[in-house]
Amino acid sequence: MTTMAATAPLPFEHQPPMGLRERKKLKTRIAIRRATYRLIAEQGYDATTVEQIAAAAEVSPSTVFRYFPTKEDIVLTDEYDPVMEAELRARPADEPPLASLRIILTGAVAAILENEPEEMHLRTRLMLEVPALRARMTETMADTSQLLARPIADRVGREPDDLEVRVFTAAVMAALREALIHWGEHGRRDDLVAVVNRTLDILEGGLRL
């Protein structure tokens, strides 16, 4: 996932309320991230330093690290996780969990491609080229899995750390990771929303001969 313009609303109906302070923090995060993508596009990932990012975003290096612990996090972190959690809680209670996640994940992917297609393409390319980014992506998706496990657990009357809940949410996020990697490895030519839907179809129906 990536981010949208600082002034654009997130593409979901059930957004967490955001005060002035939160909006300022979001604007700073987006400025840092956009500066990072611009520098990486110009000079490459390894050549881009946190000091350069800070200067381009007009903040201090300490501010960059306050928002993003590592350079990998600047590339990979976005604002969609809490919105997806809110959207998941707002889905009908009798809707199958995988159907709810399909709607939310494909909606997020479609919104990203519409609002920040160049960043999405660059980010996916970097995930294939930079081992540290690919490893960190696995960690961040695990964090997202834990976040989404809470509303899923509430939906099915279990605890978030129940094995069944953990396996389900982890499987969905792992499938999304593989969909992104597949899309990147094949030149990002296919419709990514269709790739994600196909991926979830496999998860739902199993591998058939």
TrEMBL record:
Residues 26-86 form the HTH tetR-type domain. GO terms for molecular function: DNA-binding transcription factor activity; transcription cis-regulatory region binding. Keywords: DNA-binding, Transcription, Transcription regulation. Pfam families: TetR_C_14, TetR_N. Residues 49-68 bind DNA. PROSITE patterns: HTH_TETR_2 (PS50977). This is TetR-family transcriptional regulator. The lineage of its organism: Bacteria, Bacillati, Actinomycetota, Actinomycetes, Kitasatosporales.
